[in-house]
Amino acid sequence: MLRFFIFFFLFIHSCVAAPKIPAAVPATKWLTLNGQEPAVVARGGFSGLFPESSASANDLAISTSSPGLTMLCNLQMTKDGVGLCLSDIRLDNATTISTLFPKAQKTYKVYGQDLKGWFVLDYSADTIFSNVSLVQNIFSRPSIFDGQMPVSAVEDVLGIKPPKFWLSVQYDAFYMEHKLSAAAYLRSLRFRGITFISSPEIGFLKSIGMDALRAKTKLIFEFKDPEAIEPTTNKKYSEIQKNLAAIKAFASGVLVPKDYIWALDSANYLKPASTFVADAHKAGLEVYASGFANDYRTSYNYSYDPSAEYLQFVDNGQFSVDGFITDFPPTASQAISCLSHQKANLPKIGNALVITHNGASGEYPGCTDMAYQKAVDDGADVIDCSVQMSKDGMAFCHDSADITATTNAMTTFMSRATSVPEIQPTNGIFSFDLTWAEIQSLKPQIQSPFSTSGGFQRNPANKNAGKFMTLVDFLEFGKAKAVTGVLINIQATSKKGLGIVDAVKSALTNSTLDKQSTQNVLIQSDDSSVLSSFEAVPPYTRVLTIDKEIGDAPKPSVDEIKKHAEAVNLKRSSLDTISESFATGKTNVVEEMHKGNISVYVSVLRNEYISIAFDYFSDPTVELATFIAGNGVDGVITEFPATATRYLRSPCSDLNKDQPYAILPAEAGALLSVAAKEAQPPAIAPSPPLDAKDVIDPPLPPVANIGSSDGEAPPHAPPHSGTIATSANLGLSLLAILALGVLFAVE
Hints:
CATH superfamily of the largest domain: Phosphatidylinositol (PI) phosphodiesterase
Organism: Brassica campestris (Field mustard)
Number of helices: 26
Pfam families: GDPD (PF03009)
Strand content: 15-25%
GO molecular function, one term: glycerophosphodiester phosphodiesterase activity
Protein name: glycerophosphodiester phosphodiesterase
Largest sheet: 9 strands, mixed
Radius of gyration: 29 Å
C-alpha cells in the first residue's frame, strides 16, 4: 500500500507539468574541471523529507531532480557482511532499534573516541530487515513517516537504477577491526552500477584502486574537519590539504565540507572564498561540496534562499564546484538548470507581478529608502507604501501606526505609550502621537517575524540602515526609478479621522501619477469605503485586502467586490490550506475571483523555511511556483523580491516550454498521502466562504484636525491621565521584548 501511495504521488507530480526533452539544448560553459554541468548528489535520496535512503526518499529524489542525478548511499555493514544504506555506524538516531532492543546498547572505540549506541555490526541483516524501521534523524523535518519504511540494502538502491550511484565508505578501518571488509563487499558486487566511491581513509581508496579503475568507478577522497586525523597517515586533514597533487595518485576528486570553500565569520557572513577549488582543479581533481540543505541556517548573505547558496558555489564568475551533496536535490537541480547564468535585466516570463511588502524588508528595515532601493535593484515590479500620519500631519511610509517593533522608539518615547483598542489590543507608541521630526530622529530596525521562533534574525549588519520616506518622496522615487507601479496601502485601522485618504489623493495629484498611464498606481485597503473614494480616478487599480482566511468566494461576494475593487490581496492560507506544515488542500478562490475578472495577489511570501510547507520542499522558489504556476495568481507580495524575480526570469518557470527540467508546483495533499493514516495530522475544518456583507464597510469618518496648535489629542486617543500613562509604560516594559513577535505575528 505504501508503494502505491508513493507512486501515486509521483504520478501526480509528473503530470502537473512533465518536462519535455528538447531536440537540442544550448550548451552552457561551466567553470568546473571539465566544463560540464555540476552534479547533483542526493544524500540518501530526498532525505530532507523522508528518512534517509528509504524507498520513498529515493523515488522522490529521482522524480523531482534533474536527469543526471547521482544517488548517494552511506555504507554500513551488518555482522553477516550485508551492506546497508544508513548515515551512521549506529542505528539509534535513524531507526526504531532502541524501542525494540532497549537494553542492547554497546560502547565501541571509533577512531580514538568512545561511542555508545546500537551498532549496525551487532545485528544480522535479517534481524534489521524483519524488525527495524527508519525514522527521520533531523528533528525539524517531518516525523509522520517514522516507523513505516524498512532499511534499504545497497542492492535495493542499485535496483531502482538511479542515473548514477555514489557509495560513501566512512568507517572501513573500524569495520576491519571487527573482521568486516568494505573492499570485499564491493568486490562481491563487482563494482557494478557504482559511479563514485568516496572515503576519508586513504588506505581504503588505495586498496580498491585497481578494481575501481577496471570498473570505471571514480574514487573521491573525503576531507573531514581540518583538525581531524586521517587514519592511514595519522596526519591532520589540514596537512593533507597542502599537497593536493598527491591525492591525484589515488583519487580523481575530493569531497569537502562547504566551509572549506566559503567559510563564515563569527557574524555568519561569508568570508572571501578560499583558493581550494582553484588549487584542486590545478591538480586535476574534481571538487564536490557537502553540507547543503534547505532547512539549515547559514550565511545571511543568502537571505534564507537556498538557491542563492548553490549559485554562490557554481555561478560566482571565478570558479565552480563540480557537484553538491544535498538533502534537497530538487533545489540544487533548479539552481543549476534554471537559475544560474541569469543575465541582468532579463525579462520576466508571464504576467505575474512581483509586489513588495515594505520594500525588500527581508534584507533592510521596512519602508526605508534602502529597502526600496534594494527592491528596485532586485527587479520588483511594484513597490509599496503603507501610509501613516505623524502628529503634525506628515504622510509617510510605515507598515503600522505602531512604531515600537520597527524603530528604537521604546528607548526614546516610552512616555508616549498609549492604548488604542481600534488599532490593536496591546499598548504601543503610535506615529500620530509623534511629530515628523521626532520620527525622523528614530533609528529604523529590521523586523524579523520569526525571531522568537528559534532566533531567525534578518541581516543584522543592516538592522538599522536607511531612513523612513515621506509619501511624497516615495512617489518621486517610484517615478525616478521607472518601476512598473506603486502600491499605496491605506489601512482601515489607521485612517480613522487622520485624513490619510485626502493626503494620498493630494500627493498623487501633485506627483501627476493620476494623469499618466506609464506607471500603474494601485490603491490597497482592507476597507471598501476607502477604495470607493478613489473610484473617480479610472487609471488606479483598487485592491481589497481580505485579512481573514476564506475557503470559497461565492458569486454574490465577488459581485460585491467588483463594486469597489479590481483586485484582491489574499492570505496564502486562503489558497492552499496548511495543517502542521503540510499542504492539505487547495481552494477554488482564485478561479472564482478570475471568473469575476478580479485579479488575485497573494501575501505575504517570506524565505525563512519555517514559514514554508514541507510540500514546497522548504524552498521559497517552489512556493512561488505553486502560487504562480499552480494557483494562477496575478501577483505575489513578498519581502524578498530577489527570489521572486529570479524565479520569474528563469525559463523553468514556463511550464509550456520544452526543456529538460521545470520548476513544478506542489500538489496539495500528495505528500501527506504517503504517510500512514494514523500518523497524519487531524483534518482541519474548511475556512468559511467570503460573505458579501464582510466586503461592505461604513462611510469614511470626518477628518480630525490632528495638527492643531492647541495640543488637543486626536479623537482616538484616551485621556492622558497619570494612571493610564503609568499602566501603559508598565505594559510595554513587561511585554515589549517578549510580545513584539505577537504584535507583528505572521498570518
